[in-house]
Amino acid sequence: MLLLYVIIVLFFTHTFYYLIMAHKQLNIGLFGFGVVGEGLYKVLNQTESLKAKIVKVCIKHSNKKRNAPSSLFTTEKDELLYDENINVIVEVIDNADEAFEIVSTALRNGKAVVSASKKMIAEHLPEILQLQQESGLPFLYEASACASIPVIRNLEEYYDNDLLHSIKAIVNGSTNFILTKMFEEKLSFNDALLLAQQLGFAESNPKLDVEGFDAVNKWAILINHAYGIVEHPSNLLFNGIQNIQLGDALVAKEKNFEVKLVAQAQKLKDGKVAAFVLPQFVKHDDHLAFVKNEYNGVVIESGFADKQFFYGKGAGSFPTASAVLSDVAALRYDYKYEYKKLYHHTPHELSNDYFVKVYVSFEEWKHIPKDDFEWIEEWHAGEERKYLMGCIHVKELLGKIWWKANNTSLILAPEPIVEDIDILRLKKRSLELAGIE
């Protein structure tokens, strides 16, 4: 009886909500008026046909000059969250904990929510999924992954997880800009970072971008929509580009590769999924090799469609605002993520039982645990730095810091995942034969 009551309540809540959204103005309460928030405000003012308007904006500092009427702003969040006239909350702030509180309160108060906060979503995904089930209301966040590229909605609607072989992507525009300048203009990492900051592609404190935190947050979100995997980003294997050297770019060029920060998820033969975010050598004919500067790119490989490539700007005011706007527009027909791979299929499981082929450059042999490698097939010793190429189990990387410390640079091979290790062991060159003591 109780279950029947809950179903009836959810049905009428959902129906009533749909009627409101389909026939009435979307009245938006906006949290945050930075680059993305102001971009959304400008875009909405140019999109009258959408019948959506921002009626109130919650900001932190009321004395800051902004390009909008002062009457629009407040520092009291409850003015938005408890206003019955506001039926949509859009959240584009930096603080993940505050963002989660805003999202939670809004959903409990019967408001649809649109967000761009990848850190908040990635770290609170289980709670968010529960809140959506309890409320029956939409929570959309296309802008949290690849800004202008509609990758979440495509994964939700067009790719069955049984047929999805792999997905790999460049999901951080700041690091891609830096690597492009290092590779094509031979700038050092610091010079390329400074240029990115001057052009507005990197923050004054770029740690979240260059050390891979932003990218792994996005990847934790995307592997849920791709494979139904719910995993905290800290449990994924990841790194950024902070240790990439100009010499690494030169080695890549000699081998006809480029260097990209690549997020990858691939279904293994046992049905589990390997997922990571790491610098990677990319062949010139790879789709991702064509992704330059602040752009993002996504390659999805499935059973019948083969490879499909998505490309677009991954950062900036209007690209991100356009994704938020797309989510707001989708609310007019009550669109919500169904999480098909999580709820309607058997979710895939994350695997840490596979090997990867790697390139490692370093300053001193004493910093490299040679015995942890399955084999080392190539090594070179220069005056300032040395490098090797070999195969190692991912468990020798997870939870260990040697490959991030002491200015060590680890870059994956173009096709890094090794499953048939027994076959490849026949080709293994021992450390002694390689002349490494």
What would your notes on this structure say?
By secondary structure, this protein is α/β, with parallel strands linked by helices. It has three domains: 2-141, NAD(P)-binding Rossmann-like Domain (Rossmann fold, 3-Layer(aba) Sandwich), CATH 3.40.50.720; 151-343, 2-Layer Sandwich (Dihydrodipicolinate Reductase, domain 2), CATH 3.30.360.10; 355-425, Alpha-Beta Plaits. The protein is built from 16 helices and 16 strands. A six-stranded parallel sheet has the order 3-2-1-4-5-6, sandwiched between helices. Helix 4 links the parallel strand 4 (88-91) and strand 5 (112-115).
What's the arrangement of secondary structure elements?
Blueprint: H1 2-23, E1 26-31, H2 35-45, E2 52-58, E3 73-74, H3 78-81, E4 88-91, H4 96-108, E5 112-115, H5 118-123, H6 125-135, E6 139-140, H7 143-146, H8 151-158, E7 164-170, H9 173-184, H10 189-198, H11 207-210, H12 213-227, E8 237-238, H13 246-254, E9 257-267, E10 273-283, E11 295-302, E12 306-313, H14 317-330, H15 340-343, E13 355-362, E14 373-381, E15 386-393, E16 409-418, H16 421-425
Parallel strand pairs: 1-2, 1-4, 2-3, 4-5, 5-6, 8-10
Antiparallel strand pairs: 7-9, 7-11, 9-10, 11-12, 13-15, 13-16, 14-15
Helix pairs in contact: 2-14, 4-6, 9-10
The number of distinct helices, counting runs of at least 4 residues, comes to 16
CATH-level-2 architecture of the largest domain: 2-Layer Sandwich
Name given to the CATH homologous superfamily of the largest domain: Dihydrodipicolinate Reductase, domain 2
Share in β-strands: 15-25%
Helix/strand class:
alpha/beta
Radius of gyration: 23 Å
What sort of overall outline do the alpha carbons produce when their principal axes are compared? globular
Number of domains: 3
Q: Which bin fits the share of residues in helices?
A: 25-40%
The main β sheet shows up as: 6 strands, parallel
On the 0-100 scale, what is the average pLDDT?
Answer: 88
Strand order of the largest sheet: 3-2-1-4-5-6
Unreliable spans are: 1-21
End-to-end Cα distance? 73 Å
Number-wise, the strands total: 16
Instruction: Assign the CATH class of the largest domain.
Output: Alpha Beta
**What name does CATH use for the topology of the largest domain?**
Dihydrodipicolinate Reductase, domain 2
